[in-house]
Amino acid sequence: MNDKTHLEEKLIATIKADGPISVEQFMETCLGDPEHGYYMGKDPFGRGGDFITAPEVSQMFGEAIGVWLATAWLMMGKPEKVNLIELGPGRGTLMVDMLRAAKVVEEFTEAIEVHMVEMSPALRKAQGEALKGLPVNISWHQRFEQVPSGPCLIVANEFFDALAMKQITQVADSWFERMVELDENGELVLGLSEQPVAKADIPRWAKDAKDGDIAEYSPQRMAMAERVGAHIKKHGGAGLIVDYGHAMSFAGDTFQAVHKHKFVDVLHRPGQSDLTSHVDFEALAEGFEAGGASVFGPRTQRGFLIAMGLREREASLRKNARARERIMVSRQAERLIGEKQMGNLFKVLAITDGTLEEPHPFGLPDEMSGGDKGNDQS
After folding, report:
1. pLDDT at 378 over 70
2. Which residues does 3 contact at the CB level (< 8 Å), separation at least 6?
3. Alpha-helix residue ranges (DSSP H) falling in 240-280
4. Angstrom distance (rounded) from CA 117 to CA 137
5. Separation of alpha carbons 293 and 226, rounded Å
6. Tens digit of pLDDT for each residue in 195-254?
7. Fewer Cβ in 10 A, N or C end of the chain?
8. 44 falls in which pLDDT band (50, 70, 90)?
């Protein structure tokens, strides 16, 4: 019985015909293949999917970002029209929550033109349902380059981690790219390139690595960051990037696959498992700066959300809730800011066009929330 996925069969045929493919090509194909890619024909979010993102955990996440955007718009001088651009908008939940919170500044809501950058037909449909009836103009785009000119506010939550990355392994004094090839039984396995990687392509921070170490870098993420930075620099505005990853570049293998809320082997059921790796925020910041943007942070999601009033919003939601709902609200808050949950692993980076003051709360020490114990669970 053949239990291979359609994409696995396609990958095996490609490798048989053309030879091994890079981890970068494997990841890109698994996620974005037009016929069988992970994001192209299904809704992977929520409890019925493979993973839950922060907007699906609680409305408090999107509301905090909505308030941040409203404040940024005021700092921009209240432009009459502003393009609110979301990269990889998931189900549309984050946009709904951001727009609800944006109502605290009525003029801001009236200025917003929503632009959703989404390649997945299935997710576009879900987003359309979520945003149906909202009093804003909404446009969808396959690529970021299709977004029109004008002052902008950009949000990317768990967008960059899904852009493909390269992996290289140090062997003796050389680096070799990690590849996906076939074993003697014709099954997918990880291997190494026959030729070493050119020294010019090796990240400078990898020079202190040891034999056997794995380094990750993503030309795709860097190129996208540079395009976003250039857009903000040219048209004016600000952006907020939220993702899981590390603040500083270092060697390590963070390539992972998730299927039905469980970690699985990265070669498990290609096209049906979500493939990601941790975002290198130091490298990402260099990409934004190369485009001309100013960068602030990163700081932890915990520090950002607490500084943006998450505890106060939690208390407000609990105030008029029944006992079971109060427990749920506090558990949701803990999921977002708990040090052993999303709070420290996820980072938040702000970018501006260079004319704006340092946005709140990036001028505050990230440790400001370290002693916060939160509300009890009763």
Report:
1. no
2. none
3. none
4. 14
5. 9
6. 999 988 999 888 888 899 999 999 999 999 999 999 999 999 999 999 999 999 888 999
7. N
8. low
Geometric angle at alpha carbon 223, from 18 and 279, rounded to 5°: 90
Q: What angle do CA 51, 116, 127 make, to 5 degrees?
A: 55
Q: What is the pTM of this model?
A: 0.90
Give the tens place of pLDDT for each residue, 341-371: 998 999 999 999 999 999 999 988 875 433 3
In the chain, where do the E strands start and end? 21-22, 82-87, 112-117, 137-141, 152-157, 166-171, 174-182, 188-196, 214-217, 237-246, 256-259, 262-264, 274-276, 279-280, 294-300, 346-352
Secondary structure tally for the chain: helices H, strands E? 13, 16
Q: Is the dihedral of CA 158, 238, 341, 217 positive or negative?
A: positive
**Separation of alpha carbons 111 and 80, rounded Å:** 5
Element containing residue 331 per DSSP (H, E): helix 323-337
- Contact indicator for 249, 272 with CB cutoff of 8 Å: no
